[in-house]
Amino acid sequence: MWLDRFARVDNNLVVVGISESGEEHLIPLKLMHQHRLPKPRVPRSMFVTSLSSWTQASAAQYASMFGITKGVTNHHVVYKFRKGNFTVMVSALELQRALMSCPSQVVGMLYHPQGIDLMCAPLLGEGTFEMRMLQKRTIKNTLRTADKFVRRLDWFYPFPSAYRAWKSVYRHATNGKIAMTLPNAEIQCSVQGERDGNTIYARDICIFRITPLEEPLEWAQSIRREFKFHGTKAARHLQAQISDSRLQTRNGDWKLTDEEWAAVEPLIHTVGVHYGRPSKFDLRQIIDCIIEKLGACKSWNEVGGEVTSKSVIANYHRRMRNDGRWERVVKVLNELRSARRS
């Protein structure tokens, strides 16, 4: 179901959802986060992007990729950003889920004019401060979700554009819009969604790290300048499913030329060597498979074919990524392909 806009019923905010048939449904605020678009079985892609650089895109185009083609308005704002070969489209509601991770018990606080101020307040010390929750009882029954939510308030409250972003959610809702004012911050995230060429229609976005691109308020100068939203275990799990948006095609072809292989081979010549034994696989074909998988955002199952098994190709990439060789391969390859274009 596509959540299209807000409406008022008996002076209460409700969400208007649209089914694939075009039928409209009224959904209470507390239940809105239970309604999501179908989740595609495709690999995740990892990106680093500045939220302030995002622009608006077509909601109808986005919703149509998930089978919703009737009755879609522009009241649910969809954003887009470009990174490498890809254009990524993200709905405002998915971005809110990723940034705020609100337990269902406090969704009402998000859609409240003073919601964030009713939930927390800074406790100031001499040169230090900490955020103190004022609504602990409200979320005590969902401690795992609540802890994740509370940690995010350390960013939302002291940084001006983050605070405005939170407050904007309610302001837009009163005008019937599902939207938010984008904060001035850089995020590291993974996205998963439908693909059409080099456009990804993100159905799910997971934010690992936020780096504010602004100074906090004067009383919060001691606060850290980077916020981790998910632990290393989640990051490692998702890392295996990602693409690499830095990779460039060569006129639509991912395979290495002889010139490129001559430059890349010295960087990876130890791949596949164990205790002095030579690799039994063709390294050039292995690298071709890795580049195609990460550059075209394919699954490991889709590359390899007659070369070798998906597990072998994935293990080669994992080892190169862990010891730093993959970074050098990407740098050299991009330099060669950029030079050829110029």
Describe the structure.
This protein has eleven helices and twelve strands. Helix 8 runs antiparallel to helix 11 (325-341). It has two domains: 38-239, no CATH class; 258-341, no CATH class. The radius of gyration is 23 Å and the shape is globular. Mean pLDDT is 83; it is low at 271-278. A hairpin with a 2-residue loop joins strand 10 (185-196) and strand 11. By secondary structure, the protein is α+β, with helices and mostly antiparallel strands. Strands 4, 5, 6, 7, 10, 11 and 12 form a seven-stranded mixed β-sheet that branches. A three-stranded antiparallel β-sheet has the order 1-2-3, with no helix packed on it.
Question: In a nutshell, what does this entry contain?
Answer:
The chain has 11 helices and 12 strands. It is an alpha+beta fold and 342 residues long. It has 2 domains: 38-239, no CATH class; 258-341, no CATH class.
Described by the principal axes of the CA atoms, the overall outline is globular
- Range of strand content: 15-25%
Class computed from helices, strands and strand pairing: alpha+beta
Q: Helicity level, as a percent range?
A: 25-40%
Whole-number total of structural domains: 2
Number of helices: 11
Terminal Cα separation, in Å? 45 Å
Taking pLDDT < 50 over at least 5 consecutive residues as the criterion, the unreliable ranges are 271-278
Q: H/E series, N to C? A: EEEEEHEEHHHEEHHEEEHHHHH
Name the average pLDDT: 83
